[in-house]
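Justification of computing resources. Each target in the renewal requires a structure prediction run like the one illustrated here; the chain below, 179 residues long, is used simply to show the kind of job we budget for.
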Amino acid sequence: MENKMSETAKKVYMVLNRFHQSQRALRGDGGLPNVEFFILSGIAMMLDAKSGKKCCVQVLPKADVSEEVGITLGEIIKVTGMSMSAASKKISILEKKGLVQRNHSKTDRRNVYITLTKKGREICESDRAEKHAIIEEIIRRMGEEDMDRLLTLANSVFDIVNEIADEQRKIRGGEGFEK
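Resulting structure tokens:
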């Protein structure tokens, strides 16, 4: 039985690796370096979440809604896990490329809100449309019933991975995986 489990474990590892490779293949870049595109698309998703728009790529916690429009650098750091310095540098690069803009708060000039420019939004929307078309084609080729089964099983695997990570975090007293 141990050999069977060992072979199954190898298959699981290989399938997870293929999922990772497929994700990289689907990842858009809008002609930008990966980190810049990651931040740009993250800003788009956070702005969508803030406005109550459902985001098709990732479920994000609803950001605090204020009278200001945009995302703070702190919110970007929280979602990306980047340092303040690294995130600020990348935002400056995106700003120079005309993809984002910084807006100072009307009530407190110390607060800066980052928004997408028209060009930045167009890059994100084009990427989303391309991904949506690919996903729809995958579902068409696979069939909705098989896709539903796969999604149910994949979500079970990810839930178990998170449970194990939480258990390990408690044992080590450190961080687990994000849910």
